[in-house]
Amino acid sequence: MLTESGCRERRRLLWERLPACDLIIISEPRNLFYLSGFLMNPTELSGWGLNFLLLSRTGECRLLHDNKARSEAQAAFVDAREAWSWYDFGNSAPEKLGAAAGALAALLAARYNAARQVAVEAGHFPAGAGAGLAAAPVADAGAPLAAMRAVKFADELACIRRAIRATEAGHLCARTALQAGRSELEVYAEVQAAITRAAGEPIVLLGDFAAGQRTESGGGPPTANVLRTGDLMIFDIFPVIGGYRADITNTLCVGAPTHSQQQHMLALQAAMRAAEGELRPGATGAQVYAACRASLVAAGLGAAFFHHAGHGLGLGHPEAPFLVEHSTDTLQAGNVVTLEPGAYIKGWGGARIEHNYLITAGGFERLSQHQIGF
Length: 374
Known about the structure:
Elements: H1 4-17, E1 23-26, H2 29-36, E2 52-56, E3 61-66, H3 70-74, E4 80-84, H4 96-111, E5 118-120, E6 139-140, H5 142-149, H6 154-177, H7 184-199, E7 207-211, E8 232-237, E9 240-241, E10 244-245, E11 248-253, H8 259-276, H9 285-298, E12 310-312, E13 319-323, E14 336-339, E15 342-345, E16 349-352, E17 355-360, E18 363-366
Parallel strand pairs: 1-5, 3-4, 5-6
Antiparallel strand pairs: 1-2, 2-3, 7-8, 8-11, 9-10, 12-13, 14-17, 15-16, 17-18
């Protein structure tokens, strides 16, 4: 999990980016977690709704949360906590999001009515809360937070490494779960169980689990599609574990792969090595993409590669830096990125592979260790 020192340092850096403000209001759930360690479990009924972090120039960090989130609030690294009552098992509850905005408006009017230079996340701040402000917001906190999140802190890296380790268990499970006559959903269920056991907690499992003809389009969620001998199956697995993501991919074959399938996989591995050669501070996302694409073009697969070469990873994905043809992003030490070459051919099938990397001062560290290839 995130640490108190990490959360406090991130709040300090946010103030450096918004020096003219006297109040910062955070409402986007991932940013709340990033700055305070307040994490709502998405597998529980209380894991949805609006909660708020109010950062004062005085240094105080106050968490406003609904009454169903008291235990999570107690675990947060904040200076003050304030609960508003949503549902008490005795009375009808109001519409939750609107009620949360109203609770924030009331708190702003009562405690923060002197604030005149207010920053909010422009794309997330609820309009209904604006009634509590003495002056309209003057700054967007979302943009500086996005830039900050691109460079990981030590506590974030610990969370990402943990998510990757658990996801690797899912890839290992896939090698035995993949059998002719089983459905994609049956394989998915086994992989999810393996990751859950490795994580030691409930997870949210997202990903592509597509086999056979479905691989031609690049993937998709698992279906009742039944596996047949010779099918390829893409396992692009990106669970949410403790708030952070892993995103690692491999493609397997039901039974022994053909020569053309083996050559296809070798081409993807070569493209990954070519892109790895560009992973260093100062390189642009466009450079990394160009290296990946050039390798696939040389293998005759240029037309079969139609997506990004990779992207940033952390509390969400895809996020900056983006490894695409026209990317303006520049790699920095502390970025966590993916590389995911893929190639898809109508009437034949498709495959994709992916590793996760930490950009370091001297180049990169590969964070994922799952076996790539058939």
